[in-house]
Amino acid sequence: MTRLPAETERALHLFRVLVRAHRSVVEHSVRDIKSHGLNPTEFAVLELLYHKGPQPLQRIATSILLASGSVTYVVDKLEKNGMLRREACPTDRRVVYAVLTDQGRALLERIFPAHAEAIRRAVGGLSADEQETLIALLKRMGLHAQRLLDEAGARKG
């Protein structure tokens, strides 16, 4: 087997550690969400509306990284369950907003504090200073990775 350069081995190790940590933290989130009878996509839509207010359906898709067809399915289900409603945009009839209902707002007001606590516990292996440092490092790494993707896309286009 060919030995890779030390910097490549370190990058691969970082990737594996990052993926494992991500899986573990996400599992805390998913378990909490499922304990309230929701799936992660439904929760993501409700949380977006709870924190950001009414959103065009297309913006929901880009905000939570879903295909527009998937958003339609989830919004249909949440609407059927009385958690949100659709409203036409008064200035552009091509745009439809998803709006949290009183029932949806009450649900999020009840479950979100416990959800946030589950996340806090999941990342609690780091001190507050370590969390701030990790946030800055991950942002920098993510921006660098995105810049490389953008550059590669520009060369193709």
TrEMBL record:
Domain HTH marR-type: 11-143
SUPFAM superfamilies with a match to the protein in the record: Winged helix' DNA-binding domain
GO molecular function: DNA binding; DNA-binding transcription factor activity
Protein keywords: DNA-binding, Transcription, Transcription regulation
Superkingdom of the organism of origin: Bacteria
SMART domains: HTH_MARR
GO annotation, biological process: response to stress
PANTHER family, per database record: HTH-TYPE TRANSCRIPTIONAL REGULATOR MHQR, TRANSCRIPTIONAL REGULATOR, MARR FAMILY
Protein name (database record): Putative HTH-type transcriptional regulator YkoM
